[in-house]
From TrEMBL:
This is PucR-like helix-turn-helix protein. Residues 25-163 form the RsbT co-antagonist protein RsbRD N-terminal domain. Belongs to the CdaR family. Pfam families: GGDEF_2, HTH_30, RsbRD_N. Residues 331-389 form the PucR C-terminal helix-turn-helix domain. Residues 173-281 form the CdaR GGDEF-like domain.
Length: 397
């Protein structure tokens, strides 16, 4: 940031300022008392640390007066350092800005009313002096505002990092003590007891449409852990029946979401996290919607043990997966339609826009290739499990 400079100080003004420099200790005492009188926050500082407060006042007065007298740039490093320290102490920016305005008026009045002069100074020069003083105050004020914004950003970042550390402890199970869990709930803005559900949702690139944004401002309190591709949230429900309301809200967001079943305390959240992640894997690649853990038992089993499911699918559907891609797709889509139609060839035919006999032919072909009889319940269950594994892992095809 460019710092205003006070250049070409006339000899009369220089003499005026030099006279003030000789009175800096006295002026610092008066200014400290004035600030303590005008600003409550500085009254407290003046009472608790009077010597240090006067040193700061003296240093600021001296730097400003020397810069004016020498016609050079106003040094701001010390002001920034002071501003940073006071911002971290929680002193409001408005109070500091008022303090500098009070200081500007104080300097001007001290020069005008209390300094003995060998010769009078013209109104034009006094106006120039006043303008120079306020330029210095303005440059100080700009530096203050910048430092305060920086400290606010740093504080917010630190607070957010601390909050995420607390949240991570609840999510991953590192926080188990009841007292620590109660404190975590306070930090996260969650109730210490009640019903909770964990949500794992893909991020869509626009934070305004993430699951956390959809639930923001709703009646449910929640805490979210953002990630690169997904975010994990703990949502507090007032009643277990509210699960359907949360699910409905998220379903309308065009997101891929996995939800755990409700748990009764924060200590159970780590288990709920695992269940929500499994539920998210119940959705096929590229699809959206909300999957609740256990709502589709077979799918939940497949998503919960993907490696084992993949191995079983490759073994059971080996002959189908060895077919040319076009035939493979026809057979698998027919089997899927048959399941979706409740085992009815007629219903599957309507879904596929083909004749029922075509469906029956394809089903016989599937039985031949897999060695499974679709009239046998166990075979039906095995094939459905394998079919779900393929749906959730397109790499199998």
């Amino acid at each position: 940031m460019a710092v205003p400079s006070v250049t070409t100080t006339p000899p009369e003004l220089r003499a005026l300022v030099v006279a003030q420099l000789g009175r800096v200790p006295e002026l610092a005492d008066e200014l400290a008392g004035l600030l303590a009188e005008k600003e409550r926050v500085y009254k407290g500082i003046n009472e608790s640390a009077p010597v240090e407060f006067r040193k700061v006042c003296a240093a600021n007065l001296e730097r400003a007066l020397i810069a004016f007298a020498e016609g050079r740039e106003v040094p701001l490093d010390a002001v920034r350092k002071t501003a940073r320290a006071q911002a971290r102490l929680g002193i409001p920016l408005a109070a500091m800005l008022r303090a500098f305005r009070i200081s500007g008026t104080f300097i001007y009045e001290a020069a005008l009313e209390r300094t003995p002069l060998p010769c009078p100074i013209s109104p034009e020069l006094m106006l120039r002096f006043s303008t120079g003083v306020w330029k210095i105050i303005d440059s100080y004020s700009e530096a203050l505002a910048v430092v305060y914004r920086e400290v606010e950003t740093e504080t917010a970042r630190h607070d957010e990092q601390a909050r995420l550390h607390v949240l991570d402890g609840v999510l991953d199970g590192r926080t188990v003590d009841s007292v620590e869990l109660d404190e975590a709930a306070r930090v996260l803005g969650l109730p210490t007891s009640g019903t909770f559900v964990v949500v794992v949702a893909d991020r869509v690139g626009d934070a305004r449409h993430d699951a956390s944004a959809l639930l923001a401002g709703q009646r449910w309190r929640s805490a979210w852990r953002p990630g690169l591709d997904a975010e994990t949230g703990i949502v507090a429900l007032e009643r277990g029946a509210e699960l359907s309301a949360v699910r409905g809200l998220l379903a309308g967001g065009g997101l891929a979401v996995g939800m755990s079943t409700p748990v009764g305390e924060l200590a159970e959240v780590p288990t709920a996290v695992q269940r929500a992640r499994i539920a998210r894997r119940c959705l096929s690649a590229g699809s959206t919607g909300v999957a609740v853990y256990g709502a589709e038992p077979v799918t939940t089993l497949v998503a919960g043990a993907p490696t084992l499911a993949r191995e079983l699918a490759r073994d059971l559907l080996a002959e189908i997966l060895a077919c040319p891609p076009a035939e493979q797709e026809v057979l698998l889509s027919t089997l899927r339609a048959w399941y979706d139609g409740g085992g009815s060839a007629k219903d599957a035919a309507e879904r596929l826009f083909v004749h029922p006999n075509t469906v029956r032919y394809r089903l016989r072909r599937i039985q031949e290739l897999t060695g499974r009889d679709l009239t046998h319940p166990r075979a039906v269950a095995e094939l459905y499990t394998a079919l779900e594994a393929v749906r959730l892992d397109p790499a199998l095809q």
